[in-house]
Specification:
It is a single chain. By secondary structure, the chain is mostly helical. It has a single domain, classed as A middle domain of Talin 1, CATH 1.20.1420.30. Helix content is about 75%, strand content about 0%. The protein is built from 12 helices and 2 strands. It has helices at about 1-25, 35-60, 65-90, 95-125, 130-155, 165-190, 215-250, 255-265, 270-280, 285-310, 320-340, 345-365, and strands spanning about 130, 345. Strands 1-2 form a two-stranded antiparallel ribbon. It starts with a helix and ends with a helix.
Length: about 375
């Protein structure tokens, strides 16, 4: 009976990404009635679950930290494509689209995913244990790139408004790309052990117990289906975004709320995967997903947008406002205090989730 249920789940996780892409092709660029929007939303949720399943299959095959890196980079690449596509549509809102999306991703990953993972793990084992060296390196990289890309434009004077001049934008893009490359090399080659899960006594776990890695063929199949699932997640999220935008406008909320909703949808696969890892006492894997996604979001989005602005209409506003600067400073400070001990209680998880709640409240009521 149980084996049959697992076989059915496996079958649907293989079929759903294909069906979701077919639905995406049929609905792309069209005005959707309410019933179709509901159907698209159902397939969107199913594609998220399928993406998580195939990401876990790949993680079992390649091991950590490569498994979490695959999901983070895959989601971010497709997210970048979505941002550039929306910016190409033009309009006043496209000037701040990249900034709003990247900052939303930073707040959701560094406070939402990290906080939820720490809370789940510490409630189960009283204390969540992770590697402070690897997590600290990831947080330092996120803080540096976020500061160079999102904070400095608010205070520069070469260009009017909170935006970079061309030389400054080129420097920020190259810095983000180089630091991301160094981070990946550190995570996967030179200091891979810093990013592996650890036991409650601090011993590194280099392999999953009682977990048989899938075959190479199964892993490649899951990689292809993961790509299809992520494409459908982002594409279907874009398809339902006009409905979400209309609802936001009707409710009298700021337009930036749409970006938060879309970011939450796009980051659902990583969030679910991180919580599952935390429940299995693999807190380091959860933190790899959260901070790695934040790093990938900035390190890949800023260079891509910098190149795209050469052919896209309108200015590119990257500088954060005062309230967002305060939230970013609090996130970095609290994150540092969380990482240094290498251990966390439910309190730390609650603090990070409170910062995410503050960000959402201020987005709803600036």
């Amino acid at each position: 009976m149980i084996a049959g249920l697992r076989s059915t789940a496996q079958h649907w996780s293989d079929v759903l990404p294909v069906l979701a892409v077919v639905l995406l092709v049929l609905t792309w660029g069209r005005s959707l009635p309410g019933g179709v929007v509901a159907l698209v939303s159902c397939f969107l949720a199913a594609a998220v679950l399928a993406a998580v399943h195939h990401a876990e299959v790949i993680a079992l095959r390649v091991g950590e930290p490569f498994g979490s890196l695959v999901l983070a980079v895959a989601v971010t690449i497709i997210e970048v494509a979505l941002i550039v596509t929306l910016m190409a549509d033009g309009g006043e809102k496209s000037a701040t689209l990249a900034r709003d999306t990247v900052f939303a991703a930073v707040m959701i990953t560094c406070n939402g995913i990290v906080g939820l993972s720490l809370l789940v793990a510490s409630l189960k084992r009283r204390v969540a244990v992770f590697n402070a060296e690897g997590t600290g390196a990831a947080l330092a990289t996120v803080a540096t790139v976020a500061g160079l890309s999102l904070v400095l434009p608010t205070f520069t004077t070469s260009a009017p408004g909170p935006q970079f001049s061309t030389p400054q934008l080129v420097f920020a893009a190259l810095s983000a790309l180089i630091l991301y490359g160094l981070f990946v090399a550190t995570q996967t080659v030179r200091h891979r052990d810093y990013f592996l899960p650890v036991t409650s006594s601090g011993e590194v776990i280099d392999s999953e117990e009682h977990a048989h890695p899938p075959s190479a063929r199964a892993a490649w199949t899951s990689l292809g289906l993961l790509a299809l699932a992520l494409i459908s997640v982002v594409g279907l999220a874009k398809a339902v975004s006009p409905t979400i935008e209309s609802a936001v406008i009707a409710a009298g909320l700021p337009a930036s709320v749409v970006g938060i909703v879309i970011a939450l949808l796009v980051l659902l696969p990583e969030t679910i995967a991180a919580v599952r890892a935390a429940r299995r006492d693999r807190v380091q894997t959860s933190l790899n997903l959260g901070l790695g996604s934040a790093m990938a979001s900035i390190g890949l989005t800023i260079p891509a947008v910098a190149v795209a602005t050469a052919r896209l209409p309108g200015p590119l506003i990257l500088g954060l406002g005062a309230s967002h600067l305060v939230l970013l400073a609090l996130t970095v400070t609290v994150g540092t205090l969380t990482v240094v001990p290498g251990r966390a209680t439910p309190l730390q998880g609650g603090v990070h989730l409170t910062l995410l709640a503050a960000y959402i409240v201020l987005a709803l009521s600036p």
